[in-house]
Structures are given as C-alpha cells and as structure tokens.
Design brief:
Distance between the termini: 65 Å
Radius of gyration: 20 Å
Strand content: 25-35%
Order of helices and strands: HEEHEEEEE
Strand order of the largest sheet: 2-1-3-6
Shape: globular
Number of strands: 7
Length: 133
C-alpha cells in the first residue's frame, strides 16, 4: 500500500472512531429536570443550554434573571403543569402571538410542525376546555 493510501485509511478510521464516540455521548436532556407542576423551556434543542422552571404564568420573561436568559432563545420545552392542560409560549409580552403549545405531560425536544423556536417572551397555562392556546 502506498504511503498516501495508508494515511487516508488511517484518517478515515480515526474519523469513524471519533464520530462513534460523539454519537454515544450522553444526550443533553439526561440532566434536564422539570418538576411536576412546572413548565420548563430550554435554550437549545434536546433541553440543552440555559433553562428555567416555572409553576405560574409569566407575562414577561425579561423580568427575572432565569427567564430573561431565554427571551427569544427557547428551543425545547416540557409541560409538567398539574393545574392546567396546555402550556403556551407566546412571541410577545402579555400573551400574544402563540409560538409553541404543549398538552399536559408533553416534552418537545424540538418545535413541532407549525411551531416557532427562539421567540418566547411569555408563557401561561390554559385549561383542557380550551381547544388550544
């Protein structure tokens, strides 16, 4: 085998080993905790990055240190509300222009069809009698 062929083979073998190592790493959501009774948005897909946990409605995410870090930076969500069925995220302060909605117990590591990421400015829960946010 020529020297250049051995170098390419070794490089490809090393790349394959590296990609397998990356693929087998622990997923970001392994350490993501969202307590029962709360709604939890996270900055990155798969629950990575900054996140906060809230058990109430919040009309303006910029009015709190934890929630302010996620203004227009939300990419994954968990709905563990007990009092409300829907967890709704809005693109504007004061609950206007819904961007993400989750039924009770749902976890969305990425936006679902028709939903928008990186737009969150407020959140609230709604009862099951409401058809959707």
């Amino acid at each position: 085998m020529h020297r250049s062929a051995r170098l390419i083979t070794a490089t490809l073998a090393g790349a394959a080993t590296m990609s397998v190592g990356i693929a087998m790493g622990a997923p970001a959501y392994a350490d993501f905790v969202c307590d029962t009774g709360s709604f939890c948005p996270a900055e990155d897909p798969d629950y990575g990055g900054a996140h906060f946990e809230i058990a109430t409605n919040k009309s303006d995410w910029s009015t709190g240190s934890a929630s302010a870090a996620l203004v227009n930076k939300d990419s994954s969500w968990k709905n563990r509300y007990q009092s409300w069925y829907w967890a709704c995220v809005y693109a504007n302060v004061g609950y206007s222009s819904v961007s993400v909605w989750l039924p009770q117990g749902a976890s969305y590591p990425r936006a679902q069809s028709g939903q928008r990421t990186n737009t969150g400015d407020s959140n609230r829960g709604l009862s099951s009698s409401t058809s959707k946010c």
